[in-house]
Amino acid sequence: MRDLRSLPPIGLSLYRIVIGFLMTCHGASTLTGFPVKPYGGHTLSLTEWPDGVAGLLQLAFGLLVMLGLATRPAAIVLSGTMAYAYFSVHQKHALLPMANGGEQAALFSWSFLLIAIIGAGPLALDALLARSRSQDEGHVARVARRLTSRNTPAAPGMD
C-alpha cells in the first residue's frame, strides 16, 4: 500500500475536479439547458446582465478549474462571482444563507477560494505541463553539457 501521506494531494485534486465539474454543469445549464433545465426553467442569453455573463463565467472557468488549467486565477474569478451572487441576490432576503437560499453560492464561493489558496493538486494539466517543461529543460541541459564537454579543450597538463 502506498504511503498515506500521498492521499491529501490526490484528495485535493479530486475535490477540485468535482467542484469544477459542478460549476461547469451549473453554467451549461444556465446557458443551454444541458444537462438539465436551469432552476428558473428557461435558459439565458450570454448578453443578459448579470445572469447570462455569470453563466458564461461559470461554464468557462468551471471547466478550467475541473481540468486544472490556470486553476488559481480561474478559482479566484469564480469565488468572486459566487460572492457577488450571494450578496446581490440572496443577502437582501435574509441575513443567514439557510434563510435566504444562498447556501449554494456561499459554499461555491468558499470552495473556490480554498482551491485558489491551496492550488490544483497533482492531478492537473498545470502539473502535467510543469513536469513536461522540467523534463524538457533537463534534457536540454544534458545535451548542452555533452556538447560543451566535447568542445572544451583540455587544460594544460591534463592530456
From TrEMBL:
Classification via InterPro entries: DoxX, DoxX-like_oxidoreductase
UniProt topology in membrane: Multi-pass membrane protein
Keywords carried by this UniProt record: Cell membrane, Membrane, Transmembrane, Transmembrane helix
Transmembrane segments: 12-36, 56-87, 107-125
Top-rank lineage group of the source organism: Bacteria
Subcellular location: Cell membrane
Predominant location category: membrane
Record-stated family: Belongs to the DoxX family.
Protein's UniProt name: DoxX family protein
